[in-house]
């Protein structure tokens, strides 16, 4: 079915931009996550600080989970992804200067959130 109004076309464009960017970010995060987890040469047995454990739960785990959920429930997934990134930036303020990390989840998360708000607005 073709979008009929300019509003619907914009909404569809935002949705597809969100889906494509989320798929790329998911692939990117999974690549590095699986590479890191499969690193057999790492024999460092030092205790991991609690702050780093929370940071790992938020990014990549929370962000990845949120972006995957976005494909099923846009608003819920986008809130999970965005909140994971915001809490990560509160816990690790040194990461705020890394714009690549910030943009990874924020761009698709915000696009999915905008689309869900526009879709809800169109229902009324």
Automatic annotation (TrEMBL):
The keyword Transmembrane applies. Pfam families: DUF7670 (PF24709). Residues 8-122 form the DUF7670 domain. InterPro entries: DUF7670. It comes from the Bacteria. The chain crosses the membrane at residues 14-33, 53-72, 77-93, 99-118. Keywords: Membrane, Transmembrane, Transmembrane helix. This is DUF7670 domain-containing protein. It comes from Zhouia amylolytica AD3.
């Amino acid at each position: 079915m073709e979008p009929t109004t300019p509003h619907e076309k914009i909404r569809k464009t935002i949705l597809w931009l969100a889906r494509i960017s989320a798929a790329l970010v998911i692939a990117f995060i999974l690549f590095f996550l699986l590479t890191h987890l499969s690193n057999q040469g790492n024999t460092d047995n030092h205790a991991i600080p609690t702050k780093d454990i929370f940071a790992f739960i938020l990014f990549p785990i929370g962000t990845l989970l949120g972006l995957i959920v976005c494909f099923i429930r846009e608003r819920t997934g986008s809130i999970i992804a965005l909140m994971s990134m915001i809490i990560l930036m509160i816990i690790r303020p040194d990461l705020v200067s890394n714009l690549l990390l910030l943009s990874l989840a924020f761009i698709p998360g915000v696009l999915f959130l905008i689309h869900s708000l526009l879709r809800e607005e169109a229902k009324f």
